[in-house]
Structure formats: C-alpha cells, structure tokens
Amino acid sequence: MTAISPPQHGSWVPLYRHLGPCSLPSSFTGAAKAKPSLADLLRQDQLRVDHIHRRLSESGEAVGVSKEGSSVKDPLRFEAAYLHDQPVIQVLLGSQPKSSDDQQQQSQVGVIQTVVLDTASDVPWVQCAPCPIPPCHPQTDTFYDPTKSSTYDPVSCGSPACAQLGRLYSGSCANGHCQYRVRFPNSNASSSSGTYATDLLAVGPGAQITFRFGCSHADADTNDATAAGVMALGGGPESLASQAAPTYGSAFSYCIPATGSRRLGFFVLGGAPGAGGGVSSSQYVATPMLRYQRVPTFYRVRLIGIAVNGQLLNVTPSAFAAGAVLDARAAVTRLPPTAYAALREAFRGWMAAYPAAPPTKGGLLDTCYDFTGAFFVVPPRIELVFEKGSVLELDRTGVLFHDCLAFAANRDDRMPGIIGNLQQQTMEVLYDVAGGVVGFRHGAC
Questions:
Q1: pTM for this structure?
Q2: Beta strands, E only, 158-275
Q3: Catalytic sites, residue numbers
C-alpha cells in the first residue's frame, strides 16, 4: 500500500476502492470478498446512469430521456452497486463517554462508519441500531446506536430542516420526529428510511461539525455486506458539502485510485482557491462548474471536444450541448452518440494491431480486444477538451476497462453525458462550489 500526499488544505481522510488491494481493514470478513461479474457491474452501472437521466427528465431539465423506465429491465438491486469497487471513506459519527466510571469527561470520538462517496445524491444516511437484518443489511463496522451518543438529537417535524427535505426526501412524522426516505432507482419499494437527526461528524482530524443525516432503520432491497451507508456530496442543502460549508468553505475534493492499484486515494473537505493553491493553481486543469436550476444535486461541466493522440475528433461542439454530469459512483463515462461514434472509430484505428474481441454481455462496451500474448499494451492518448479550451489528458488506466474502450454511448445526443470514476481516477477532482469551478490535478494518487 503506497502512501499519498493530499493537498495541504482542509481536513482529509484516506479513500479506498471497495474491492481494491488497499480496501479498508473493516471490510474484511475473514473470507475472500466476492467480486461481481463484469456483466452485473455494467448492468448496475447503467441503472446508476438511468437514475441520473430520469431525475433530470422528470424535472424538465433534460430532453431526450425516457420517463417510462430504464434501458435495463432486470429488477436488480441498485444499492448493491457500491459493492462494485466504488470509493469509500471512514468517518466518525456521534460521541460517547470515555468510560462508564467517568461521566464528567466526554470523548468527542464516535463510532467509525464506512460510507460510500456519492456526488449525485443529497441526503447522507447510515444504518442505525436497532436495525434488524433484514430489512437492514449486515455491516462490519459497529452499528451507530443513537441511544449511546450523548450528542444525538432527532430533528423535529416542524423544524426548517425537516421542511427542507421537501417532497423528494421527506417521510412521515413519528412521535414528533422528522422522518426521511431516500428512494433507490430500481423501484418505489426500494429505499432507505428512518429518523432524520443530527449528531457530531468528524472527517479526519479537523473540527467536528453538527451534521444532519438519515438514521436508517430499514434499507429495503440492498445487498451490501460492508458499508454503513452513503455520504452524499450533491449540491442540495442536505448534503455534507453544503452542511460543511460554514466550517470548511464551499469546496471539497477527492482522488480515486486506479482499479487494482496499491495506492491510496483521499477525500478532502475544504480547499477553496487561494494564492497558494486551489483551482487557481497552475497544477489544475480548470473548467466552469455548471448547475441545473431545478436539480441542484448534480455538478456538471461542458465538453466541447475530444482528442485521440493529439488529433481532435471531427465532432461539432453542439453535440456536447447537454453538458456532462460528474459522478463518483458511475464507472464508465457516457458520451453523446455522435461523439462516441467518432471516438470509437479513431480508437479502433489506433488499436488496429490488436485482435478484436466480442463486445461485453449486453453490449455496453462494444470496442474490446484480445491481448493474449501481448507483451505491452499501449492504448492511444485520450484528451477531453472543456469549455474555455482547458484540455484534460486522461490517465492511461482510464482508457481501457476489462480490455475494452472505457466509454459508452447515451441513447440520444440531447441526453447529458456522465463522466464516471474510471476517467477521474488517479487525479484530484476539486469542486470549488463557491467559485463555480471544477479543477483536475494529475497524478494525485
């Protein structure tokens, strides 16, 4: 496991791929962790993308997206997707007495909770005792128990924080306590639900914040054997990013290590631009952060072109007009069909020396190769050209995935693209929310 040097700003914790060689010690159960098949991973990935597109369509923010359902018909469990090597961190939640004999001294150390980073959701949640299995799922961390935290406080039904949940996330009122519900994309019956509450949260050694989150007593139709919940980082007022802004500033960043790498990544709260760094630094490739008025959850950027080995593809910038949502949990980047067709043609031309292989099951990845006997595989260099001419060269590990081109096409040019974590890996992705800028720093992990 290789140590990393995160930026010297904000408060940070190590970030791991769930199934990677450096996965969290608490993830081990004594037996080898079951790895999903590629077909299952790609089906789950498509559900994730469909969920983002559907939310934008229902809000009227995007066209070309069917409201009738997913392109994936299998009734798969969406939240099991975070078993698929997604980014996880550990945080401390709550506070407990140092010992039963000394109630006068309070420790500000809560229980460790392993959570999945999610840049495309707003309400953080963790499983809370009592949480019978099922409907809850087993986890290797100790369950957060609100009765053992001296700083736990349920949100009241009539409070502004409860009203802020709105129709999308609000549940019923129980015993005067606000209830939340986060629906998972595969069905209306699949959700995380429980009491909306506050407690202390520590991300790394920095200052604790009073944190609103969902205390889940039921997360139906999940199948996760490790993570305690989801750390939402979206642009809505309920997210960790929004709640932490008064303490850390409206900025956060992460670096996701390459699949199979023995390097650690990191997650940082804070890091607003300044004289010594941030997106104003020459180390970052910067581009404007775009937002949806009716769906503030999503952060997006605008591509205007793609280059392969320095040659700009012949794609009109209007093909990219819908922009592209940044997502830490989706794996494969989705492009407008016009742009993807041009990328595929150019990529196949540069890879003509390698024998072609059949597409993946389901056909999501359609440009695959048989590298049997190949001593050294060198894929062409791929660069994303953003608004205002910023050029981001992807790490070579984000070009091929399971010996296939790690990109796929949307169904319509009018649908927003999705920049997944395969293309983000090894670089710091800095979200300067206050400044309205996204920055990318090469070789950060």
A1: 0.89
A2: 170-174, 177-183, 191-202, 209-219, 229-232, 251-255, 265-269
A3: 118, 327
